[in-house]
């Protein structure tokens, strides 16, 4: 497991190298939907890591006319509470178990995002056959740091922000019980928020050496955006009644889910995210 | 659970590598292998070669004042695909020459409806951020309707109709050199040129053996953008093999190994001895102990995970034990699951109490990774060190306080179970844990 976590952290860390601002996004609905479906019976805990990016092309900001904004977020999620319906009769699994046709769930999810952001997200999911709909609202409190004239994070410039973002959507999944693979797609509308707590930038150039001079502080900004997105999901799960024979305590699921914002005629994707979730 | 988590390591890496591939040039994949996957528990692996003919866009150079493009559309492609099936749904993934792709859809003996896409378009491409690349601009994919007629047991005939957005090859001659860290820049790299195509065709599939099939497929496509006619002839061989294991596959394979052992072992389900199902550690007739190492004569005597601190030592852990003096045997509880199995007193020895694997190394590693990650995000050394320290400490705290230490991975070291005890000592030790009546009654002959 240590290898896996290390590998994922390195991958997402590399992807973060160019980020400028912070972005705030409500969590992906897919892991909650799979837990509500109870395709891996008995699962109630969700652990996730998620990396996401939000872009805004030519957005107007206070100190400049327009600018391309680029925010990122890397977070860990842990579900604190889950209540799914109906009650799963056999949490040890069953042959040909395809989950609850009209399963649903209420969840309370918590997250921590780098460097200092925490949040709570109540989430509701309802399945109708192979389809589900869901909604979540994330309350976020973050202490964000700005960047100095050398584009390094500085503790001189900071702001506290309490805010919220929503995510509503739906999806469908197909389960291959003979193998324990699930494939799905989902989509919806999410609110993304790009936050810049302020920065310091050079306002002139040294005529002799060409260095930047006269650094001045710039006001921060928050940009809200509403993005339609789609996602694909690949699920690895167990539900056959072989816990004792396979020396397992409970059934599990592993979900890889990717989301991408949809907006025609823009040069960069407005939103992109990848998350790895372990369902126990 | 532990076995499954080990498998996750490989799975994570495979999925991540697959998602990060970047070629976008793709034509419709062969239809016969997809249809052949219907109702197969094994996967269908397809290896095919396609020859392209007709009015191809090649042997032509395009010069402008600032660019030189070579139109050199390929005349052939190799396709490798792994198709999994569950009833009327099949899902495949593979490579068409340089392009990783996904395929999925409805499948039945007579009709199939499938869609496919290159991975890059739906995965990595949205990350691109330049004037030339907008969302899904690198999408190669489409849909195909397939009708299949089984002629007899060995022969099938099928018709296909498709609509797709294909990619074809275009080379930028004397293009800009590679910048930064890049691999394979010195090789000519085809760039995608996309076009919409509508067309149809037919295929003939022949059964060669129980697992092997061969098919030949002809396809016509009309390029709607440049009004070209293209033809494709595919020779495809497919064979069945175990599918890339999903969760239930992994579970079955682990269970299969233990089931063979369980035929030789005397076992009881712990649940059958419980009167209070809310107390998972309480099993009537069995003593609950601190997790203990037990040295067994060989690995066939247990369904628990076997550790080998040295070559000739087979050690397992248990939290439940009892000694049945009349049977000269010991009952041990499986380490993670709920089976109780019997081992002869002559085949075991008692060892040390289990110690949890030291968390320091893992905490330091996570701390270093957290520091690197924070460094990339914040660009500030003090902040990175603070966040890294938080990562390491948080990791240590979660595992130290958030989990039962006896449920974490055990520390395995060479001295483990190296001390041997005499039979008298073993019996003396076992007498602390006599079996209760419930267990003896349960297993009475």
Give a structural overview.
The complex is a heterodimer of chains A (280) and B (445). With 280 residues, chain A is mainly β. Chain A has a single domain (19-279), classed as Beta Barrel (Porin). Chain A has helices at residues 2-15, 30-37; strands at residues 21-25, 46-61, 64-85, 104-113, 117-128, 131-147, 153-176, 181-196, 199-205, 212-218, 221-237, 253-262, 271-279. The model of chain B has no long low-confidence stretch (mean pLDDT 84). In chain B, helix 5 runs antiparallel to helix 6. Chain B has 3 domains: 2-241, no CATH class; 262-355 and 422-442, no CATH class; 360-401. In chain B, strands 1-4-5-6-7-8-9-10-11-12 form a 10-stranded antiparallel beta barrel. In chain B, strands 13-17-16-15-14-18 form a 6-stranded antiparallel sheet, covered by helices on one side. Chain B is elongated. At the A-B interface, helix 1, strand 7, strand 11, strand 12 and strand 13 of A face helix 1, strand 4, helix 4 and helix 5 of B.
Task: Give me some keywords for this one.
heterodimer; A: 280 residues; mainly beta; Porin; eleven-stranded mixed beta sheet; two-stranded antiparallel ribbon; 2 helices; 13 strands; B: 445 residues; alpha+beta; 3 domains; ten-stranded antiparallel β-barrel; six-stranded antiparallel beta sheet; 22% helix; 38% strand; elongated
> In the CATH hierarchy, what is the architecture of chain A at level 2?
Beta Barrel
The top-level CATH class of chain A is Mainly Beta
Helix content of chain A: under 10%
Overall spatial form of chain B: elongated
Topology of chain A as a string of helices (H) and strands (E): HEHEEEEEEEEEEEE
Biggest sheet layout of chain B:
10 strands, antiparallel, barrel
Structural category of chain B is alpha+beta
Global Rg of chain B: 31 Å
Structural class of chain A: mainly beta
Strand residues, percent of chain B: 35-45%
- In the sheet with the most strands of chain B, the strands line up as 1-4-5-6-7-8-9-10-11-12
Biggest interface reads: A-B, 76 and 70 residues
Low-confidence stretches of chain B: none
Helical segment count of chain A: 2
Oligomer: heterodimer
How many E strands of chain A?
A: 13
